[in-house]
């Protein structure tokens, strides 16, 4: 292992460790749980797009929208409508399924 690798490894912080500390705060945990379905959906969209080796621009063209809308969706800064999500899913060759638990 090189010196750079050793320094990087020593300086690294694991996400799970930070998350566990933050989850000790009840307000943080409530907000995290509230937002989890949104970020899970975003992760699925990004994973599907990348597995197809598709750019945001290509997905935007397929879905009939602009690249900036895909970027905002994937960054979590946009709260999409169901119609928009259906267009994105079709652009990925997928379907949307909603489940209430």
From TrEMBL:
For this protein, the record's CDD domains field holds:
HTH_XRE (cd00093)
Domain of life of the native organism:
Bacteria
- Pfam families in the record, alphabetically? HTH_3 (PF01381)
**Any idea which GO molecular function terms this record carries?**
DNA binding
From the Swiss-Prot or TrEMBL record, give the protein name.
DNA-binding transcriptional regulator, XRE-family HTH domain
Q: Where is the HTH cro/C1-type domain?
A: 45-100
**Would the keyword DNA-binding be found if you checked this record's keyword annotation?**
yes
Q: Which organism is it from?
A: Trichococcus ilyis
Keywords assigned by UniProt? DNA-binding
Q: Which InterPro entries is this protein grouped with?
A: Cro/C1-type_HTH (IPR001387), Lambda_DNA-bd_dom_sf (IPR010982)
């Amino acid at each position: 292992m090189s010196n750079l690798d050793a320094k990087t490894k020593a300086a690294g912080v694991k996400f799970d460790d930070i998350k566990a500390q933050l989850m000790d705060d009840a307000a943080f945990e409530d907000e995290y749980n509230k937002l989890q379905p949104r970020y899970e959906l975003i992760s699925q969209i990004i994973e599907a797009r990348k597995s197809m080796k598709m750019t945001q621009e290509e997905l935007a063209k397929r879905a009939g929208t602009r690249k900036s809308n895909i970027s905002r969706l994937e960054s979590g800064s946009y709260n999409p409508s169901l119609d928009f999500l259906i267009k994105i899913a079709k652009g990925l060759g997928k379907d949307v399924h909603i489940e209430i638990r």
